[in-house]
Design a protein that fits this description.
- The structure holds two protein chains of two kinds.
- Helix content of chain A is about 35%, strand content about 15%.
- In chain A, helix 2 (about 90-95) runs antiparallel to helix 6.
- Chain A has a five-stranded mixed beta sheet with strand order 2-1-5-3-4, with helices on both faces.
- Chain A is of the alpha+beta class.
- Chain A is globular, with a radius of gyration of 16 Å.
- The longest helix of chain A has 13 residues, at about 150-165.
- Helices cover about 35% and strands about 25% of the residues of chain B.
- In chain B, strands 4-5-10-6-7 form a five-stranded antiparallel beta sheet.
- Chain B is globular and about 60 Å long.
- Classes of the chains: A alpha+beta, B alpha+beta.
- The interface of A and B includes residues 44, 116, 120 and 142 of A.
């Protein structure tokens, strides 16, 4: 019988606890134990990006990390990025520009976009040109591999960042 | 798919980790960033009965300037290397190559030591270790030893690090002032594994080539230095003819893999084209 492990972590600002097998993936723990089903499970090998969450402030694939490794960590999932009942500017921009098709990958894209926007490279580009436009490297979102949520997401993400002023 | 069950250990010191390896023998597997091992476990290509997780050992994450060498702790995240001003200054070829490793979210977790120890034939970091003539420090039951890049990679996913040892540090000699460099990679999409990649580091003195380093990824079963091609440049300089001859030499000396991404012949052709591009760009800086 596999020994169970206790996991205590902060998710979207709240302390959460659970008990799972060491082999439980963080994505499955979030979905099955904490009922946070916004984090999607796609390829299960870190390529598609649907499972991306912020792990201690940095985008990371929750399908190739064990929940036990997140013990003590600060996690933000797509459920945690809206401001109260108002969509995060990135979400609003995705919505407005229809920056999705089937929407399965969108939670991960939002998290990656959020992290990319905070990257030094984005700041530098903004500083040089005086505008946020172009701040989000296209390849960052093309890293998401579901394929159906085509190019509009990039425009949407940029529009969201302009409104968000990267904050 | 989901991984098979395993016993999980998260030591907080290298000594504890070594003791766990000794106690569990060949059943145990070290977990670094997990960006290769966990996918393999998810697909059940790997099912280690015991996982020794190195992520709770804080002493293994650092980037230190030791004068003529930069020492990087094995568990330093690729993302930390990517954003390091010290690395950008002293090892710009590493800064260039690490942006090609996976994606931003995988670089948040992936580590420099994990990638090198995993020794995927297509990985960029072993190529940089080769091109800079670096070394790794490993610790085992008999203490520490240093393994030069040229002695490290043996075959696909096979290194000379033994099962009871842990890679603890990557040592990269500082690039000489004025050295040019280029990383040329061919992949189907950004962030994909390299079908073929060549890194060149060139120290130019006028039209002479004081030193050339050319290393590969994705072409053969493991990253390798192409010494004979380097010698063409060191002996004949950096003119068009010499660069073309070095590229031909490079293509002639590799033993390319064949898989669904590329035939051996295509990889040989890529070796020639990428070597020429990398050397030209490195020499032109």
């Amino acid at each position: 019988m596999t020994r169970m492990v206790d996991v205590r972590l902060t998710v979207n600002g709240k302390t959460c606890e659970g008990r799972c097998e060491p082999r439980t993936l963080l994505a499955d723990f979030l979905r099955d134990d904490l009922s946070l089903t916004g984090t999607h499970v796609g390829c299960e090998h870190g390529a598609c990006g649907a499972c991306t969450v912020l792990f201690n402030g940095e985008a990371a694939r929750a399908c190739i990390m064990f929940a036990v490794q997140a013990d003590g960590a600060d996690i933000v999932t797509v459920e945690g990025i809206a401001r109260g009942s108002a969509l995060h500017p990135l979400q609003a921009a995705f919505h407005q520009h229809h920056g999705l098709q089937c929407g399965f990958c969108t939670p991960g894209m939002l998290i990656t976009a959020l992290d990319s926007a905070r990257q030094p490279v984005a700041q530098r580009i903004r500083g040089a040109s005086g505008a946020v436009r172009g701040a989000l490297p296209l390849h960052r979102l093309s890293e998401h591999r579901h394929g159906c949520d085509g190019g509009r997401r990039d425009d949407a993400a940029r529009a969201g960042l302009e409104r968000d002023r990267l904050r | 798919m989901k991984p098979a069950s395993f016993d999980y250990h998260a030591p907080t010191t290298v000594d504890e980790a070594l003791a766990l390896l000794e106690a569990n023998g060949p059943d145990s597997r070290l977990l670094a960033g997990g960006q290769s091992l966990v996918p393999m476990m998810n697909f059940r290509l790997a099912a280690p009965p015991v996982i020794v997780d190195l992520n709770r050992i804080p002493d293994l994450a650092y980037i230190e300037d030791h004068g003529d060498v930069v020492c990087i702790g094995a568990m330093t995240r690729q993302r930390a290397v990517e954003s390091s001003a010290l690395v950008a200054d002293k090892l710009p070829v590493l800064s260039a190559a690490i942006k090609l490793v996976g994606h931003l979210p995988t670089r948040s977790r992936g580590t420099i030591g994990g990638s090198i120890a995993h020794a995927d034939p297509a990985a960029e970091l072993p190529m940089v270790l080769q091109a800079l003539d670096g070394a790794v420090v490993v610790r085992g039951p008999n203490g520490r030893r240093t393994i030069a890049a040229s002695e490290l990679f043996q075959d696909a996913m096979t290194t000379s690090i033994t099962a009871d040892e842990i890679l603890v540090e990557v040592r990269l000699p500082v690039m000489p002032a004025g050295a040019g460099y280029a990383v040329e990679e061919f992949a189907r999409r950004h962030g994909d594994f390299a079908v073929a990649a060549v890194t060149a580091v060139i120290l130019r003195e006028g039209n002479r080539c004081a030193s050339a380093r050319i290393a590969t990824a994705g072409i053969s079963s493991h990253s390798e230095r192409l010494r004979a091609a380097e010698q063409v440049l060191e002996q004949h300089g950096l003119g068009d003819g010499a660069i073309a001859r070095a590229a031909e030499t490079a293509a002639g000396m590799v033993e390319p893999l064949a898989d669904r991404h590329a035939s051996a012949g295509y990889r040989r052709q890529l070796t020639q084209v990428l070597t020429e591009r990398a050397v030209r760009r490195a020499a032109g800086r």
